């Protein structure tokens, strides 16, 4: 496979201290409660990627980089699919997904978890630095195995996301043997999100009812990200009868190299297909460390940034209600995502109000600062008040 680019440069601000995502102990889950911790961590991990991917997509100038726009959009939707499959898995083994909580939303910039390298995951505009980060996030895992394997015997912590998912897979198999399949998968089947509740770019949501479907869910998550069997492609064609598509890593690699993968290309060959029209300059440059407090109180940009964060908090409540109460509520994510798109226009197309940042050619941007106060306001603003699942239905997502 082609060599990864060097790690993204350090962030511009000298005082920036990347947040750390809490990681489970470096071992295979030992019991049901342990498995719940690992699966909640997986849910948090899948969500970690969504704001950076959305930021790259939202910063594209209208009418430009259409191939890149649709590729990133497809990956975002598949990350939402991964979140939903993890939630199904957590529900299936008797856990309860936590989404609408400030601990769930990582502050940005954050260090990439489950990695030997200290890679800052920041909210960057579309460009080479953002794509280099995305390639690190989605990089294929071909070597690392669960703790105890000779390849990781000398390690004292997680070395890759692939390794982390391998331990969950190993733990599921072991616990199914110890507790019995029916004993392990004893969650309420009414909490399972099905294909009728969710529309996605590639793959599909399915209920997790036992070990086979649980392992299939993990397969979809890992192979959509890194490909299968050292190939460029995911397994959506094999599992769901859909078109054969490159995995996330290779979609980002196509954009980064401005060339598509051909049908016979491999990770070692790199892309040899047609050139892609990618224009790095057709994006709104933003401050990767932007905060709401950087915008003047009462300004239009400040209000737009606050409305964006409030809308994102409402989206998290929609997801939590769908994962813990009524899967049909997930359809309400469609208008929530559309609202985020509309609010993004009011931010990314405005020169930064701070004179120093504006002089550097920077624009305003969303900050994804989700506090407990915002989440409380979002919960109260939903139709029916706190605790309700009576959310408006919309076009299928």
UniProtKB/TrEMBL annotation:
Residues 39-256 form the Iminophenyl-pyruvate dimer synthase domain. Pfam families: Ferritin-like. Gene3D superfamilies: 1.20.1260.10. It comes from the Bacteria. InterPro entries: Ferritin-like (IPR012347), VioB/RebD_dom (IPR026820). This is Iminophenyl-pyruvate dimer synthase domain-containing protein. It comes from Streptomyces hiroshimensis.
């Amino acid at each position: 496979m082609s060599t990864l680019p060097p790690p993204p440069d350090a962030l511009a601000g000298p005082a920036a201290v990347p947040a750390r995502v809490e990681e489970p102990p470096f071992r295979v889950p030992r019991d049901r409660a342990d498995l719940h911790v690992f699966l909640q961590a997986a849910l948090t991990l899948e969500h970690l990627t969504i704001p950076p991917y959305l930021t790259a997509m939202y910063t594209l100038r209208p009418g430009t980089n259409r191939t890149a726009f649709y590729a990133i959009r497809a990956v975002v939707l598949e990350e939402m699919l991964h979140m939903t499959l993890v939630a199904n898995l957590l529900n299936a083994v008797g856990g309860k997904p936590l989404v609408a909580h400030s601990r769930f939303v990582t502050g940005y910039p954050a260090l990439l978890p489950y990695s030997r390298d200290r890679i800052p995951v920041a909210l960057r505009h579309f460009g080479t630095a953002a794509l280099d980060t995305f390639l690190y996030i989605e990089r294929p895992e071909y070597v690392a195995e669960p703790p105890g394997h000779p390849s990781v015997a000398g390690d004292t912590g997680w070395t890759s996301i692939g390794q982390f998912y391998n331990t969950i897979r190993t733990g599921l198999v072991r616990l199914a043997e110890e507790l019995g399949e029916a004993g392990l998968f004893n969650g309420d089947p009414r909490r399972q999100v099905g294909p009728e509740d969710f529309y996605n770019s590639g793959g599909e949501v399915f209920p997790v009812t036992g070990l086979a479907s649980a392992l299939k869910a993990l397969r979809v998550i890992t192979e959509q990200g890194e490909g299968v069997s050292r190939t460029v492609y995911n397994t959506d064609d094999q599992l769901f009868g859909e078109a054969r598509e490159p995995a996330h890593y290779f979609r980002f690699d196509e954009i980064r190299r401005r060339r598509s993968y051909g049908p016979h290309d491999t990770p070692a060959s790199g892309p040899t297909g047609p050139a892609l029209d990618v224009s790095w300059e057709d994006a709104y440059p933003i401050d990767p460390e932007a905060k709401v407090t950087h915008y003047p109180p009462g300004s239009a940009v400040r209000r737009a940034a606050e409305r964006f964060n409030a809308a994102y908090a409402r989206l998290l409540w929609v997801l939590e209600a769908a994962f813990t109460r009524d899967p049909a509520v997930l359809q309400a994510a469609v208008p929530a995502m559309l609202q985020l798109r509309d609010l993004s226009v009011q931010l990314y197309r405005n020169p930064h109000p701070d004179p120093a940042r504006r002089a550097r050619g920077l624009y305003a941007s969303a900050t994804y600062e989700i506090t407990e106060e915002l989440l409380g306001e979002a919960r109260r603003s939903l139709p029916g008040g706190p605790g309700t699942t009576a959310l408006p239905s919309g076009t299928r997502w």
